[in-house]
Specification:
The protein is of the alpha/beta class. It is built from nine helices and 15 strands.
Length: 328
């Protein structure tokens, strides 16, 4: 039985706690949050011991693995500390605010022999998994053009002050648009070599972006576009078009995945599931369990998580230079 400690027992920490309850061989044994009343409510609902300090949690002998779901700028210190304590790590996206910080986390995980998986949820969602399977079958050929978007309400109930500043790793792209970026990069399955981008706060008075458009150039000749928009009012639109050599795929998180051929879209079977997010988190923990107990490879590595952050950093540089920027 794997004992899990949740560092960041807040909104999405609770989503992980609900998922952990559904995974055989994994149990929640501890949780950490600065807000003592909120921590008490969390442990009363989900179980486990409560800690105000994450350092005390990673010293708990019953904790074998940790989930880190804290503000983005806190990920680096916590992940390195957990690795040094010998704890396996499921690290929520974004992996860290900078590629250099990701490198430090990866080095700590490697040096201490712990499993590290980055929580890019799209890899475990039924619509995206179906698209990946369709591409792997081969008849569509290579994906050449992709457009992926996340357009949603920015000031949601769970929005915090740290979400709106650069120094804390905030902004719509780093917080939510990263899902659209990750999905595109994963399904294109090629290295991004350069990025052109425009970002800004178009709807809210804040330091970090609430809207951006990215253009990606891939090593194999493919091109992609990402839209990340956090509006004041509207309707959620979270979908993607992938144009391959011999057909197209449309991925819609609210409808499933469709195959385009002969000018028509056909829904792919079993590509939609209600409550896809909860089921995706369950799959994350199932893979994490297997990685720990059976030494299976993690589906989303620290190197992959670092690559996504390098793309975002290139987008920031491009916005400043007004030129296409290569990845570093």
């Amino acid at each position: 039985m794997i004992g899990v400690g949740i560092i960041g027992a807040g909104h999405f920490g609770a989503a992980h706690a609900r998922a952990i309850e559904k995974v055989d061989g994994v149990r929640l044994v501890a949780a950490c949050r600065n807000d003592e009343p909120a921590l008490g409510a969390f442990t009363a609902e989900h179980g486990g011991r409560g800690y105000r300090d994450w350092r005390a949690l990673v010293e708990d002998g019953e904790v074998d693995a940790v989930l880190i779901a804290t503000p983005h700028h806190l990920h680096t210190e916590m992940a390195i500390g957990a690795a040094q304590a010998g704890k396996h790590i499921l690290l929520e996206k974004p992996m860290a605010p900078t590629a250099a910080a990701c490198d430090a986390i990866n080095a700590a995980a490697s040096a201490n022999g712990v499993k590290l998986m980055v929580g890019h949820l799209m890899h475990f969602s039924r619509p995206c998994m179906t698209a990946k399977e369709a591409l792997a079958e081969g008849s569509l050929g290579r994906p050449l053009i992709a457009s992926s978007w996340m357009i949603k309400l920015w000031m949601e109930q769970n929005r915090q002050d740290w979400h709106i500043g650069h120094g804390t790793g905030g902004g719509m792209l780093m917080t939510a648009g990263i899902h659209a970026l990750d999905r595109l990069v994963w399904l294109m399955d090629d290295d991004v070599v350069s990025v052109g981008a425009m970002l800004g706060a178009k709807f809210h008075d804040q330091e970090a972006d609430d809207a951006s458009m990215l253009s990606l150039r891939f090593a194999g000749g493919g091109i992609g576009q990402v839209q990340s928009v956090g509006y004041r009012d509207g309707a959620v639109n979270f979908a993607m078009d992938l144009v391959c050599e011999h057909g197209t795929l449309r991925i819609d998180m609210d409808r499933g995945t469709s195959l385009g051929r002969g000018t028509r879209l056909t829904d792919l079977p079993n590509s939609f599931e209600p409550d896809w997010m909860h089921n995706a988190v369950i799959r994350e923990w199932t893979h994490m369990r297997d990685a720990i107990l059976d030494d299976a490879p993690v589906p989303v590595t620290g190197d992959y998580g670092r690559n996504i952050i390098a793309i975002i950093e290139a987008a920031y540089r491009s916005n400043e230079s007004r030129r296409e920027e290569e990845l570093v």
